[in-house]
Recover the amino acids of this structure.
């Protein structure tokens, strides 16, 4: 069962997210990008996971493999969209002080994909009655793997951004897997179960987006508004209009996820 | 007779004679001087002087280049600025204040103050500069004056002290002379006055010194900046001055020229013979050891010259052609920093300014060895030329394929023709020709920092040759190919000097000499100290000999006496176990003594056999002495002597399997096919071929072979079958409920360790060939009805079949399958392996149990041939048909097998065959590699090789090998079309040839098969050729064959050995006619390729048994020796087949911004990486290409799907090779997991903090050294991940390392020695998650110790014993004084559900769930791990094993709950360490024996009266009398 928190785009969190970037220049106009990823094919049923540790606690949650979640209206959840541009103007509103929370809840990571900015605290909590460890497989930031006792928590802060989301695993419960997206700007989003996303308050003009999904890797090809588009290494240049850019339906063939 | 004017001879004639002889003498003298003046070495020395001058000049030019001038200008400007800067008013005021404090300086200070004010008022810069200078001058003057006064005061003080000394002496003299009291008083008063003056003067002097020092310091502060600037400038100039001085010193000049003139050159000529005297490194000159004089450096002047700044790199590498890519600027007309924009791109003048502007290089006016050569003189740091890798001295040979014959052509090519923005392909000739080149391995040889400095070792101890010679031909240089011989002959008059018995090693065998001192050989393998292989060919030869077991027949005895080592020692180990096995088959053994069988079994397979052997040997001796009462056979008595310890035992095993139980394993058909030609069944076998080697035979000789060999094969089988003991097959496990399943068996073979040593067609990635290829194993065993049972037994317990086999027991135990049934993995594997046949079948096999009449006759003939060795020919013939009469029953020896020959045909055939079989096995020495009953005491059959490298050719039988080779080489299409054409062309082509020889460019290959010229030095064979039909000249075949052919023609041992390894039986060519069948050469044909042959030859030719004086022998330190001893065992048992023993090493050269700065990981202080400041600073140095250097030790991150090293892009995202090649935007990187802390960009990069992503170009610019071992771990990495994915889709690839054979890096610091020793002999499961177990090897206790010491030695840990106070109970008691619940509370952390017991087995507790998430047993940590390791490991596991999934349980800044253990993180860490190291103490405390205390059992001991009952006696104590126990039982 997917947790409710996943149902809304992560972006709504962003309003309250801390921005640690020095804001140098200010763009004249701001706009948003939105779109919806749609699965072309029969929606797969996520397979059940083998729960063979702490069965009395973890066994009752019907845990499934979350690497590909397709919603009822064929929306694809957990696609990560972020802006590749290194130096980008950041809207003054996008300042937040709250740490981002990644919870070990019901023997899974909640949310499945979490977005955190450099300098911002990632609070890894353990709401379960059993111990977990959170092994964060970053590539640029120091690897961390701390034991979090029941009801405990630990704080991780990232100094560098990560070009690709970092896997979070638990060695005690090997089926557990989540992802941390670390960027040095607030412009990233994770699709909800309806497959939609919105990145708000982007500086108007051209930005380079990148699309990533844990099973498919970079999304190389998709059908946008009925047109097959090759998106090399998941990268696409998008013009941000002041009144908002809607990329529309972006259809991904089932074969992308093989 | 009166005196007359008449002379005896006619004076006129005498005048003429005198005149003529005077002229002749003069001419002779002049000629002598001319010859002496023109000795070739002088030419080389002059030329080398030119080379050095040129190089020094080039460096001066480079330093003087624009870059240098810019730096100079900058520094000068800085100095000028400093000289115009304002003086610090505060310091100046302080100075003046200090000056004024002394009256004498007040006036000067006043004046200075006025100057200061004037300076402040002046604004004109020039005026200010002058004023400033004046002021400083005045200040200095004040200091000088102070200094002067200080000297004055010191002088005065000295004088007053002298006066005081005089006054005191006067007084003391007066006292001595009993002077008047008055006089004494006066004198005393004078002395006192003098004292006062001294005191006053001392104060004055001290004050003056203080004042002067204070002023000086202040003045230094005032002028500090300009002083520093002046010093930088001076330092900068000094480097150049030194270089200029070097250049001037090297350069030729008038003085040198004069000193080099004839006659004058006798007095201190700059050209002189350079000689190294080596009195202790003698050589044998006609039975006398004489000192070496090595004059090689007379010509090889540059041999020890190293590159500037790097003492290990050769300064003058030998000529080589290198292809470089020189980038061109995008915009050639662009301005550069110097502002000298040029818009025309034509060569103006010499073009150097343009070249420097465009590429940062300059070309010399003249080349060095050839004036026309376009030679690079200057390469500016970080310029395009530097980035391309050009260096000073490179000669540009071609640009984009166009040859550049002259300097101007090259300059024009670089300036005028490029398409800008792309790269030019430049071929450059780098280095210098011989004899000027430096030694290529200055790290190993010649260099003063190397282990073989020139002055200590000289040259000829390694290279051989005639060291005292000063000309090329007399030095006994050895060419490496016929062509080289030819060239040398033409150029230097070289000839093959047969009279010098130590000719230089040719290039292909130059490693041979290492064996003189490096007797262990494996010390020549790459090590951390010398990662570049020091002697790869020699080491390969050694391993080939070990692998193929050459030493079984050819003993290489490294000892000339018990303590005298003369060379490598390769001999068979004493075959105690074979003797024991033979004894066990003697039924009398059980009757010998009750313990005899047990002792024999211990000797057969025990890890430590000395005491059992001694006891058994004594028993057998006693039995032998008992004469007729002996219970053992006489054969057993003979075997008894094999059990004694030899003086210097060999150490190597027989390479083949035991044949003692052969009939339990294979069939007649398979064996027949195998013996006939082993490669037929297994193409990769190491077993050599004995039969069917008939290429050299013809006529009667061939017929004999064709007739007898099939009989010999049959007879061997017959004998082996007859002596084969019954084999006790292993009984399958009970309780197995699953049927054997081949598919499961395939998995067992794949993951349970088989592939660490074996190959199988199903797993082509597994290439290790320690064990045989298993692809057809089923076909081999299926032919025997018990083959399958045998295979099962072999998989379960290999030691049962062969107690010393290298095949370990892989401990296959029953497995419970997911469906609840229990399977036997050994049975599964057997099922699968029995299916592996590749459809192979023995073919063309005669009937096993009957002989044809002809075969029978041949058998009898063979038997007769052997019998002839003992009997007359007639008798032998009779015996071979009728057998030996019963009356000869006591004849002994093999012939007794023919006593009473059966009359029944089949039995008779068998008996004859067995006799011939035993003789044949003896003849062919099968026992050298195999354990064969009846041959336990057989001696090596071949020639000993310990000094073969010096074997005189007169003692070598070349037989008819030359005609054979001529026939072979001529007849196989290698032949020369017109063999004599070369000779005829020789002189006609002289000129063209010389051009060829001087052209240093390697464009012409030695391997050209075209008509080359025949060298007259080998023309001897041509004369021979005239008389024969076939003739092949050495130069008409490929250079390698030609080399050996030439050696063969010269009757050199190298030629003999080459052919012996190539076709050993060919020496029988045209010899069989006069030889009996059994006298033929017996050496089998080994499946060597050319490379292996040369490697083996390199080794054998190095066996000279001429060890130099003791001090020159390689004697490693105890720690290094421990490493080598362990290495030998590691290699023998192929430990590296599974485990990584040493990590990879990547020496990278990286652009500073191409690798991110090390991640900062806050951690316990004791876990932070530590490096000396200098090392950190040194890592910031950049080379001319702007790259930094780092040395990384670790393993590449493997791709989870392919198991190949991961390739990633600049975002660290995995990519594949094609992607990287296709997309120019991708910068390929390699991910690397560090196993040793490294330094990147001046900062430490800690193990476990993060993987390093290394750009591929940084790898290419550096060097990489492979890991040692770990093949199976790498092979299984993707396999176990794939398997796990079926259960858990979210498996984390790094975790797979935890299921595979672990890397043993750091093992010595990790485990305790005693534990490891026990573990190696009897491995226990440690990691529940592992997919395979550590197998049990048939190691001896000594071998296990060698391994234990190895691991400790390589890690710098204590060995053989390790001590740590934390093992002590007193340490624990100390801790418990402060914290009584120390261990109990620590145990609360362990047993808290959040922590250790979550995953670890602890005592009898096993956490439930997936075994992949289980971790090792904690209760045995106490025996297993070293306390320091445990302490660090708990603190941060990744610091020790970067791949581990174990989390940090106690973060350094966040202790676990105080409810569990009170204290900070460090205290909690220590508490856990203490608990684990005292686990037994802790658990012992809560354990009471009460439950076990039982009344002693009644023991009926008759005849002993009951003593006083004692119910309190300690139960079970040995001191308790049986009767006492008895009483206790009935007691209270």
């Amino acid at each position: 069962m997917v947790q409710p928190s996943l149902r809304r785009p992560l972006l709504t969190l962003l309003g309250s997210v801390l921005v640690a970037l020095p804001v140098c220049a200010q763009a004249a106009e701001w706009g948003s990008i939105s779109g919806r990823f749609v699965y072309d094919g029969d929606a797969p049923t996520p397979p059940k996971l083998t729960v063979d540790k702490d069965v009395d606690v973890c066994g009752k949650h019907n845990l499934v493999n979350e690497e590909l979640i397709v919603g009822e209206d064929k929306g694809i959840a957990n696609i990560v969209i972020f802006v590749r541009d290194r130096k980008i103007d950041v809207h003054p509103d996008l300042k937040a002080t709250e740490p981002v929370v990644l919870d070990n809840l019901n023997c899974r990571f909640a949310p499945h994909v979490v977005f955190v900015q450099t300098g911002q605290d990632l609070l890894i909590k353990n709401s379960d009655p059993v111990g977990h460890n959170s092994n964060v497989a970053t590539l640029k930031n120091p690897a961390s793997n701390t034991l979090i006792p029941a009801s405990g928590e630990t704080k991780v802060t990232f100094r560098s951004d990560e070009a690709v989301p970092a896997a979070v695993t638990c060695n005690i419960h090997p089926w557990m897997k989540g992802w941390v997206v670390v960027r040095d700007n607030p412009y990233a989003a994770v699709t909800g179960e309806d497959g939609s996303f919105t990145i708000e308050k982007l500086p108007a003009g051209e930005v380079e987006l990148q699309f990533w999904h844990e099973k498919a890797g970079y999304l190389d090809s998709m059908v946008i508004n009925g047109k097959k588009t090759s998106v090399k290494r998941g990268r696409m240049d998008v013009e941000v209009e002041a009144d908002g850019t809607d990329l529309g339906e972006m259809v991904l063939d089932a074969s992308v996820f093989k | 007779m009166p005196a007359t004017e008449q002379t005896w001879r006619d004076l006129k004639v005498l005048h003429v004679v005198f005149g003529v002889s005077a002229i002749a003498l003069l001419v002779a003298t002049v000629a002598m001087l001319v010859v002496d003046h023109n000795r070739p070495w002088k030419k080389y020395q002059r030329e080398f002087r030119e080379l050095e001058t040129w190089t020094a000049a080039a460096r001066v030019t480079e330093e003087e280049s624009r870059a240098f001038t810019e730096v100079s200008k900058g520094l000068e400007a800085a100095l000028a600025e400093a000289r115009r800067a304002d003086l610090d008013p505060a310091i100046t005021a302080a100075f003046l204040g200090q000056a004024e404090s002394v009256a004498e300086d007040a006036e000067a200070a006043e004046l200075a103050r006025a100057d200061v004010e004037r300076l402040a008022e002046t604004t004109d810069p020039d005026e200010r500069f002058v004023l400033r200078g004046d002021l400083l001058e005045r200040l200095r003057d004040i200091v000088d004056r102070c200094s002067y006064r200080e000297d004055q005061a010191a002088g005065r003080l000295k004088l007053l002290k002298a006066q005081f000394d005089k006054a005191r002496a006067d007084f003391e003299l007066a006292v001595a002379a009993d002077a008047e009291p008055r006089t004494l008083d006066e004198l005393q008063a004078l002395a006192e006055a003098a004292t006062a003056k001294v005191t006053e003067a001392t104060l004055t002097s001290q004050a003056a010194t203080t004042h002067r020092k204070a002023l000086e310091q202040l003045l230094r502060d005032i002028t500090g900046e300009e002083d520093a600037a002046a010093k930088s400038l001076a330092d900068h100039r000094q480097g150049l001055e030194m270089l200029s001085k070097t250049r001037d010193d090297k350069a030729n000049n008038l003085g040198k020229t004069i000193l080099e003139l004839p006659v004058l050159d006798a007095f201190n000529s700059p050209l002189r013979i350079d000689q190294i005297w080596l009195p202790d490194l003698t050589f044998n000159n006609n039975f006398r050891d004489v000192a070496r004089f090595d004059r090689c450096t007379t010509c090889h002047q540059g041999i020890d010259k190293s590159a500037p700044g790097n003492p290990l790199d050769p300064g003058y590498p030998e000529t080589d052609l290198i292809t470089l890519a020189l980038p061109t600027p995008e915009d050639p007309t662009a301005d550069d920093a110097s502002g000298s924009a040029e818009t025309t791109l034509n060569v103006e003048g010499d073009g150097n300014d343009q070249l420097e502007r465009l590429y940062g290089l300059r070309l010399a006016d003249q080349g060095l060895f050839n004036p026309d050569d376009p030679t690079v003189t200057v390469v500016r740091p970080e310029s395009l030329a530097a980035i391309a890798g050009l260096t000073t001295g490179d000669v540009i040979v071609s640009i984009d394929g166009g040859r550049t014959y002259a300097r101007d052509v090259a300059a024009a090519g670089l300036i005028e023709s490029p398409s800008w923005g792309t790269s030019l392909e430049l071929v450059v000739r780098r280095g210098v020709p011989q004899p000027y080149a430096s030694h290529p391995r200055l790290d190993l040889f010649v260099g003063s920092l190397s282990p073989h400095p020139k002055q200590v070792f000289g040259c000829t101890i390694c290279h051989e040759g005639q060291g005292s010679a000063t000309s090329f031909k007399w030095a006994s240089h050895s060419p490496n190919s016929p062509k080289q011989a030819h060239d040398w002959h033409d150029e230097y008059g070289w000839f093959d000097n047969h009279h010098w018995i130590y000719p230089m090693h040719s290039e292909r065998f130059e490693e041979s000499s290492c064996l003189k001192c490096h007797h262990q050989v494996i010390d020549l393998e790459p090590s951390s100290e010398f990662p570049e292989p020091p002697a790869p060919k020699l080491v390969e030869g050694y391993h080939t000999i070990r692998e193929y077991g050459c030493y079984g027949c050819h003993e290489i005895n490294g000892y000339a006496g018990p303590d005298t080592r003369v060379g490598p020692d390769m001999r068979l180990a004493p075959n105690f176990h074979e003797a024991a096995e033979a004894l066990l088959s003697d039924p009398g053994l059980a009757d010998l003594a009750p313990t005899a069988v047990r002792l024999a079994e211990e000797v057969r397979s025990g890890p430590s056999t000395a005491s059992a052997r001694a006891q058994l040997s004594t028993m057998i001796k006693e039995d032998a002495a008992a004469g007729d009462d002996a219970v053992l056979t006489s054969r057993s008595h003979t075997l008894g002597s094999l059990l004694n310890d030899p003086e210097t035992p060999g150490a190597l095993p027989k390479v083949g399997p035991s044949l003692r139980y052969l009939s339990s394993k294979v069939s007649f058909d398979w064996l027949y096919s195998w013996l006939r030609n082993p490669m037929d069944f297994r193409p990769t076998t190491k077993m050599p071929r004995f039969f069917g080697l008939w290429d050299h035979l013809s006529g009667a000789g061939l017929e004999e072979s064709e007739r007898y060999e099939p009989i010999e094969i049959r007879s061997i089988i017959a004998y082996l079958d007859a002596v084969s003991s019954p084999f006790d097959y292993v009984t399958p496990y009970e309780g197995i409920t699953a049927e054997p399943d081949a598919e499961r068996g395939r998995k067992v073979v794949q993951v349970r360790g088989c592939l660490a040593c074996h190959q199988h067609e199903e797993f082509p990635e597994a290439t290790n060939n320690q064990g045989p290829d298993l692809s057809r194993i089923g076909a081999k065993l299926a032919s025997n009805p018990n083959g399958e049972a045998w295979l099962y037994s072999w998989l379960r317990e290999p030691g049962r079949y062969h107690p010393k086999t290298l095949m370990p027991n892989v401990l296959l135990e029953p497995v419970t399958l997911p469906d609840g049934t229990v399977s036997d993995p050994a049975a599964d594997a057997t099922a699968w392996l029995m299916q592996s046949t590749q459809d192979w079948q023995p073919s063309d096999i005669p009937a096993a149990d009957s002989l044809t009449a002809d075969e029978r006759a041949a058998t009898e003939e063979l038997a007769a041939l052997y019998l002839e060795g003992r009997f007359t020919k007639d008798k032998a013939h009779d015996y071979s048909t009728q057998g030996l009469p019963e009356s000869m029953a006591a004849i002994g020896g093999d012939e007794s097998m023919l006593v009473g020959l059966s009359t029944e045909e089949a039995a008779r055939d068998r008996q004859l065959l067995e006799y011939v079989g035993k003789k044949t096995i003896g003849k062919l020495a099968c026992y050298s590699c195999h354990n064969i009953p009846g041959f336990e005491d057989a001696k090596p059959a071949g020639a000993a090789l310990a000094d073969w490298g010096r074997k005189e050719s007169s003692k070598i039988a070349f037989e008819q090998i030359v005609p054979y080779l001529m026939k072979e080489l001529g007849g196989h299409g290698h032949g020369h079309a017109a063999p004599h054409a070369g000779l005829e062309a020789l002189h006609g082509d002289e000129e063209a040839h010389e051009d060829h020889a001087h052209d240093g460019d390697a464009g012409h290959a030695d391997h050209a098969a075209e008509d080359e010229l025949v060298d007259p030095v080998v023309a001897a064979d041509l004369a021979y050729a005239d008389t024969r039909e076939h003739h092949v000249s050495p130069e008409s075949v490929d250079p390698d064959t030609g080399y050996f052919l030439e050696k063969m023609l010269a009757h050199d041992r190298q030629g003999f050995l080459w052919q012996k390894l190539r076709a050993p039986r060919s020496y029988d060519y045209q010899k069989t006619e006069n030889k009996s069948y059994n006298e033929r050469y017996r050496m089998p044909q080994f499946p060597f390729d050319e490379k292996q042959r040369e490697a083996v030859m390199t080794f054998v030719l190095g066996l000279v048994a001429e060890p130099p004086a003791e001090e020159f022998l390689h004697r490693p330190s105890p720690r290094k020796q421990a490493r080598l001893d362990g290495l030998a065992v590691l290699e023998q048992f192929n430990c590296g087949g599974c485990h990584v023993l040493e990590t990879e090493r990547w020496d990278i050269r990286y652009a500073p911004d191409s690798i991110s700065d090390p991640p900062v990981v806050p951690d316990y202080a004791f876990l932070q990486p530590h490096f000396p400041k200098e090392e950190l600073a040194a890592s910031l140095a950049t080379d001319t290409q702007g790259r930094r250097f780092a040395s990384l030790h670790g393993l590449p991150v493997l791709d989870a799907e392919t198991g190949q090293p991961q390739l990633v892009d600049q975002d660290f995202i995995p990519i594949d090779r094609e992607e990287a090649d296709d997309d120019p935007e991708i910068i390929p990187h390699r991910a690397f997991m560090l196993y040793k802390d490294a330094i990147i960009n001046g900062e430490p990069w800690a193990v476990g903090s993060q993987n390093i992503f290394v750009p591929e170009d940084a790898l290419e610019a550096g060097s990489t050294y492979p890991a040692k071992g770990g093949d199976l771990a790498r092979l299984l990495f993707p396999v176990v991940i794939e398997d796990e994915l079926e259960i858990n889709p979210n498996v984390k690839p790094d975790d797979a390392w935890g299921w595979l054979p672990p890397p043993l890096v750091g093992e010595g610091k990790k485990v305790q020695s005693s534990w490891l020793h026990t573990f190696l002999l009897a491995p226990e499961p440690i990691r529940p998650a592992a997919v395979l177990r550590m197998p049990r090897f048939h190691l001896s206790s000594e071998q296990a110790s060698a391994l234990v010491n190895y691991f400790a030695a390589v890690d710098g840990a204590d060995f053989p014993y390790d001590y740590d106070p934390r093992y002590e109970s007193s340490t624990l008691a100390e801790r418990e004084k402060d914290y009584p619940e120390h261990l109990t509370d620590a145990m609360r952390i362990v047993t808290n559900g959040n922590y250790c017991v979550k995953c670890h087995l602890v005592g009898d507790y096993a956490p439930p769930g997936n075994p992949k998430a289980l971790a090792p047993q904690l209760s045995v940590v106490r025996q297993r791990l070293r306390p320091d390791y445990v302490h660090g490991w708990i603190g941060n596991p990744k610091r020790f094993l970067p791949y581990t999934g174990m989390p940090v349980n106690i973060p350094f800044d966040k202790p676990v709950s105080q409810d569990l253990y009170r204290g900070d993180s460090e205290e909690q860490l220590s508490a856990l360490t203490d608990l684990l190291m005292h686990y037994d103490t802790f658990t012992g405390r809560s354990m009471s024996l009460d439950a076990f205390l039982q009344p002693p059992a009644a023991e009926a001991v008759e005849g002993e009266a009951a003593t006083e009952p004692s119910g309190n006696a300690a139960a079970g104590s040995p001191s308790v009398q049986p009767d006492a126990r008895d009483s206790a039982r009935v007691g209270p």
Summary: The first strand of chain B starts at residue 276 and ends at 284.
